[in-house]
Amino acid sequence: MAAADGPGPEGVSKPDHPAPAPAAAQAASDRQAAAPAADRSQTRTDGSVAAIPGLGAKFTAQIPAETAQVLVASGQDKNTDKNAVTLWTRTPEGRWLAGETWQGHNGKSGWTTDHNEGDLRSPIGVFSLTDAGGRKADPGSKLPYDKDPSFVVSGTGFFGDQLAGSFDYVVAINYNRVPGNSPLDPRRPMGSKKGGGIWLHVDHDGPTHGCVSIPEDKMAQLIRTLDPAAHPVVVMGDASTLAL
Q: Would residue 60 count as lying in a domain?
């Protein structure tokens, strides 16, 4: 959710209030996202797998060799606003262990490989995670954490969901931003038209303007877990694109 021309997630300064979707479309939208299933033939007794399931060669190749934490946010299709979020950890043997899977939301219109300000789609790609912050006190972050009262939002989302508290905990997704700065930093290296302020933040039970959201307790847990020594990244997009 933050405005590309200011410090905050995309679209927060100009919230939209569309009418609810027709019943059939809404029912389809309400189906819970499912995490990709692991190939059991690759699974050892410790639960580790040789490769992160659901990621094809294209996206696997974009994960840096030094990365030992990969957060995967995967939606069922390109137009869904729901996703499943799983943190994978690389073992010393180079295999991958899955953590919990959390249900979350993303942009109201789904996913895109060509994100632009206001398109209501979350950018697809592999992005590093270097900076955290929020309105609430640091829950125990290993990443730099910026506690600031400016992490505030009010009003309602697209379907009447309450936005208050959404930015109590955030992790900046390094799409069109300068890493190593507060998530509130307004600079956009690719220009304002390409959007920005794409964050991981607290879920408000509804779609976002482009961010990825998960429940508050899971955001606090994630912030405590992400370790700069593990060079964490997020791999995000719809399942069919991520499988390429």
A: yes
- According to DSSP, the residues that pair with 133 across neighbouring strands are 146, 170
Global pTM value: 0.85
Closest alpha carbon to 132 in 88, 165, 181, 176 = 181
Domain span including residue 222: 50-242
How many domains are there within the chain? 1
In a domain, 9, yes or no: no
Q: What pLDDT tens digit does each residue of the chain (244 aa) get?
A: 444 334 566 655 433 333 334 444 444 444 456 555 544 436 788 899 999 999 999 999 999 999 999 999 999 999 999 999 999 999 999 999 999 999 999 999 999 999 999 999 999 999 999 999 999 999 999 999 999 999 999 999 999 999 999 999 999 999 999 999 999 999 999 999 999 999 999 999 999 999 999 999 999 999 999 999 999 999 999 999 999 9
Inside any domain, residue 75: yes
DSSP string, 188-233: -TT-GGG----EEEE--SS-BSS-EEE-HHHHHHHHHH--GGG--E
**34, part of any domain:** no
